[in-house]
Amino acid sequence: MYKLLLVEDEKILLEDLRDSVDWISMGVEVVGTAWNGSDALKKAEQLQPDIVITDIKMPVMDGLELAKRLKERDNGIQIIFITGYDELQYVKTALEVEAVGYLLKPFNFSEIRYVLDKAKLHLATQKDAEYGRRAQEEAKIRNLLLAPKDGDFKPGEDFIVMVASIDNYQIVLKEKGNTAMQELVNGVQLLLEEALKRCGHQYKLLSLEEGRYFIAVSPKHEFVDLSITKWKILNDLIKKEHNVTLSIGQCDRQVKLNKFSEAYHQALSALGNRFFLGHGQIMISSASSVRTTSNLREIPEIEEEIIDAVCHNQRAEAISYLENYFELFRTEKTQRDIVVVGVYNLINRLYEYFYKLDKNPDAVLREKGEILSTIECYDNIICMHNYVKGKLNSIFDRFCTDMDADHSHSVVARVKQYLEEHYAEPITIENISQEMYLTPSRLRSVFKNYTGKTIHDYLTDLRMRKSLELIGDPAIRIKDVAYGVGYENVSYFCILFSKYYGMSPGQYRDRLLERQV
User: Fold this and answer.
1) Is 120 helix (H, G, I), strand (E, B) or coil?
2) Any keyword Nucleus (predicted)?
């Protein structure tokens, strides 16, 4: 699913474009909207959209300048212009900033689909180019291994392949920016180089992209059998100097040059296990790997429980269900991409609900877009879980607090109705809480805060009032009156009645009969 940012200075047109087009069916999701180029530039940095549909004529910063700025940051971003001016100069300018196309007002939905298909095709082509880049990366490694330098691997000599990686690289990159991140990558490489040198024997070290390092070492190299203690010392040093940790994926066997590609990919696969095993570890490719398929039949049910708990303002329950949600992924060792898609779906459903409630729907879209963008960056499920848990708490702080009054009124009304219908039956707080989808403690708190009475006291008042209706009929025995209002213990009913009305049920009946005479 590609991410789309909409930019239009006419609010009504912007809302219509956002709400009336079935973007999902076209394979894109609106992650944000903006009213001018300057605002859009800030949101694009935050939301990282793949496609931007923008008006040309706007205040503060027009669409042409916005497109130039966006392309300077990310040449791969796809720009689609909106204009009411079907003139050659705008088409020419659109081509100059490498826009994929433009839309004329009023919109034709078939044209929107056509231009979006072009944008998606360009994005897919870029993805294919990325695969080509990976192939070039392997060629670079091969050249490194073949480089004729003193101390290099001899022809036919065996070596061990490893891939080291800065943990949560994308998250750190978002925090630091490109320049500071490159300095960090270089600094970590120096520490790795020093560690490899101290161990002796042949080695090769090459910095790759996205905070990864290719390492080839002799089987005799001490780095192959790096003890937990020594690895911890190295990682502690990296943490101290750069505030990051390093994980290593290692091929489980020695290889020769003609097998390095297979070993390289096995090392990368082993590195993928940090999604469940955690950061700062050495993972061997022979260890159990992440499953490509998992038994996740319970996920939709847990997702429903989370949504329901949020809608009923049950913070503790929602957090507990979220624990179960991620625990199932962990237990099943589900492939990271599948976990990301699952969490995407959960966040989308939550924000779809609150989008309708919030007074500032644009803020809801921005927040959702930021969350979805960040989720993609995590390479460890515990970090992802903690992030989503924090955002779930933010949802309660932001949305559910405002819902408390209306929600409490609704809950109390439903409880009173339930008691009216079931007062003659044995009732427990647990029974009522199940009906209200609230925990017993939460239910007690809501009812007491709203009415000033406990549920028990309210039920007792109700039963006592109802008992008066039955006592007036002399044909009904006192014990049947007790049973009729929910008391199996007649003596207890008589004690309560006397406490309420200052006399026993029998005395009360006698007085009623005397008055009637």
Assistant:
1) helix
2) no
Do 234 and 268 have their domain in common? yes
Crossing angle of the two packed helices 381-395 and 361-375, in degrees rounded to 10: 170
Q: Kindly report, residue by residue over 429-487, the tens digit of the pLDDT.
A: 877 877 776 667 778 888 888 888 889 889 999 999 999 999 988 899 999 999 999 99
Phi, psi of 255 (to 5 degrees): -135, 160
Sign of the Cα torsion 396, 298, 345, 348 reads negative
- Residue 10 domain-assigned (yes or no): yes
Distances (CA, A) of 308 to 34, 248, 303, 314, 357: 32, 41, 9, 8, 16
**427 within some domain:** yes
Residue 363 domain-assigned (yes or no): yes
Dihedral (CA of 25, 28, 30, 35) sign: negative
Q: Which amino acid is at 380?
A: N
Q: 389: buried, middle or exposed (CB in 10 Å: 19+, 13-18, 0-12)? A: middle
Residue 496's CATH number: 1.10.10.60
Contact 53, 4 (CB under 8 A): yes
Same-domain pairing of 337 and 252:
no
